[in-house]
Amino acid sequence: MKFTKIIFLTSLFSIALSQHGHARQVDSHSQSTEGVLAHSSPKQIPQIKEKNLGIEAKVDALLKKMSVMEKCGQLQQFAGPGEGTIDPSYPELAAKGMIGSTLNVRGAENTNKLQKIAIEKSPNHIPILFAYDTIHGQKTIFPVPLGEASSWDAKLAEKTAHAAAKEASAMGLKWTFAPMVDIARDPRWGRVVEGAGEDPYLGSVLAKARVKGFQGDDISDKDRVMATAKHFVAYGAAVGGRDYGEVEMSSSTLNDIYLPPFRAAAEQNVGSMMCSFNTLNGVPCSGNEEMIKGVLKNDWKYPGLVVSDYESVAEMVEHGYAKDPKNAAQLALNAGVDMEMKSQTYCENIQALLNDGSIKIETLNEAARRVLRKKFELGLFDNPFVDPEREKFELETPAAKELARTAAARSIVLLKNNSPTDGGKPLLPLNPNSGQSIAVIGPLADDHQSPLGSWLGDGKENSAVSALDGIKSKLNGSESKILYVKGVNTVESTDPKVKNLDEIKKAVDAAKKSDRVVMVLGESDKMTGESTSRSDLSLPGRQRELLEEVLKVNKNVVLVLMNGRPLAIPNEVEKTPAVVEAWLGGSQAGNGLADVLFGDVNPSGKLPITFPRSVGQIPIYYNHPSGGRPNDPNNSYTSRYIDDTVDPLFPFGSGLSYSKFELSDFKIDKSNVGKGESVKAQVKVKNLSNIKGDEVVQFYIRDHVASITQPVKALKGFERVTLDGGQSQLIKFEIPYEELGFHDRHGNYIVEPGSFSMFAGQDSASGLESTFEIK
Ligand code: NOJ
To answer: How many whole angstroms separate alpha carbon 349 and alpha carbon 340?
Structure first.
């Protein structure tokens, strides 16, 4: 095959390693530089700004005055009591300048108290950087990130991140460990809930939005916090979907699928990155010099701070990569990990490592520099304290509450909306003024805790508006009667001493007496998040039985799913006329849900991740290569299962509305595209119904012949549009030639000539197609 390679930026990291001797010196591991993992993109990562040159001089001056132990102190993050109080050991450590950062200390009183000691008593008066996992809210809790990603609404993600930053900073925090930008193609992995799903493009758009929301344009602003893109890297690809598991991955997949959201966060000037627990092709990411020093710091020129994950430096011993904690410190520091979270291998060993030449003083200085640079950029030297008054008026404001309600509603994906009878009207929206009786059934229907998700910041326990609360307040004052029955628990206890809830009969009775049934089923908060991998993605416990019994007596059932990952529930979906994916919607989950169920908000969410039909189909994702024998149901010797289809339950990008939209007149402006040019496309979207609504028009491409086989479809852009009933609009989309490439096996970003298709669709599985050539 003949083609011209256009190389935008070739990584010479492997060569640089050997020429400049960056490789580790005193250990037996030597990382392979074959198929080197690199990345390039036409966009630049912001470097230290002109106005910050003053900061570099200040850092230099400070470093000159600091002792080795004080520098070590800057590299240590202590993880203290979860409730945010000051550990009894901290005051003395702070006075010695040994606390670079804390995880968990928060509340203006606590942070100010500890800060005062650091500022007044430590040898060089260096402020402490207070960090916390403000993931999807601090006090006001927004939908879990995967839920919010279903909105395909970058402005919304930016707003909720800003609202979270406002509350976190009012409580004395200046650093958050969000956003998680890990691509997740395996819903068995419990942490899919924390990210933006399976797609690198959508993931990158949301990564930028969230970083912008946390940091704003200037992280020293009082209502902003420094963001962290985590977990670097490929953490979401753990084998078997088991959290912390090993990752084996080609450099093309790493560069084209898993790295782009990190790159996007870096382009948005994210202040820090956190390295991950997993190994990547055998090397723990906390000691992965090729990725941290090589790709991130050398190739990308990322100027930010790299922090380890919780004890992940020390865990390199358990991995069988470091021989002892001292060796772990050496490997991590030389790999480019600037700050150690929780474990203390740095502070305990750096002096000895310097003494025996295992690390260089320049390496220690560089790590300390990156920490101090951020402290200056955050304005901590000028304003180390937080005004305690802010806590009185900046937490849980009515505006934040309202935003949480909007976000909850916008995160909802309408998966199915049929009529229970042939030819009848779709079941949703429900009519609040019909006087109909409604049975509200299920273990999550009146759960005030689960909607808060697994990271609930300082959100009050059991404080979420439940589905039942939301429905009740929507119907307040109407004739409608509500019957609530829990039915079963989310998970049944296996302890013989615990009496499991068995209210299935009561639920069936309530359903019999009611005109409509809303069943709220799914996963509790304890079933999603870190270390909650599942081997079975059906409805847990006896929820399926509950649903089936109810359906026997009443067909007018709306199944509302509250969960943190795709579920494999083909039978439930087939038997139930209406299915709503509500995720874990945060503080205002029930109100947002009721807004959608009763038609005050027309649902417009789209799935950011594929729903499988069975666990056996996993991993399943839309942007897979074709293979030589793509699935053909009429031909046995093609890619298939003998016991099910290869189709997903719901594809990536799908989601319905109470309106009905149609795409037409899809055109591309030219059939040949050359370097420096771009492909311009347009498509007409029409609202065929008489209900105002939003559609998310999605643009995908396919590169038909390439030196590395390319996905059958890859998302390259989308636009959300609001249309009145009957209204239509032309949507324009432009993609530059430079964004039509991919990474080859050596990490080079290339655009190859040949034929391409572009698709305009309402989801990833269907759409209009047009073709063009790259010259
Ligand atoms: C471990 C998690 O992997 C990480 O995401 C989190 O930020 C840290 N713990 C700190 O809580």
So the answer is: 12
Question: Does ligand 1 lie within 6 Å of residue 230's CB atom?
Answer: yes
Q: Using DSSP, state whether 498 is helix, strand or coil.
A: coil
- How many Cβ atoms sit within 10 Å of the Cβ of residue 65? 9
Q: Give the pair of three-digit tokens for residue 165.
A: 């930053």
Nearest residue CA, atom 1 of ligand 1? 310
Which H/E stretch holds residue 565? none
Contact 133 CB / ligand 1 (< 6 Å) = yes
**Is the CB of 243 inside a 6 Å radius of any atom of ligand 1?**
no
Q: Encoding tokens for residue 264?
A: 């996007």
Radius of gyration of the chain from Cα atoms?
27
27 lines ligand 1 (CB under 6 A): no
Bridge partners (DSSP) listed for residue 176:
132
| Cβ–Cβ under 8 Å, residues 17 and 349 | no
Give the pLDDT confidence of 377-391 residue by residue, as tens digits.
999 999 999 999 999
Ligand 1 atom nearest residue 231's Cα: 5
CA of 590 to the centre of ligand 1 (A): 28
Indicate the SS3 state at residue 478.
coil
Predicted confidence (pLDDT) per residue in 45-90, tens digit:
888 765 667 999 999 999 999 999 999 999 999 999 999 999 999 9
The model's pTM: 0.94
The dihedral formed by the CA atoms of 170, 176, 179 and 180, expressed in degrees to the nearest 10: -140
Question: Catalytic residue at 309?
Answer: yes
Tokens of 399: 């505006």
d(CA 215, CA 321): 36
d(CA 140, CA 168): 10
How far apart CA 138 and CA 567 sit, in angstroms, is 28
- State the virtual CA torsion across 234, 235, 241, 244 in degrees, nearest 10: 140
Q: Among 109, 143, 160, 103, which Cα is nearest to 392's?
A: 109
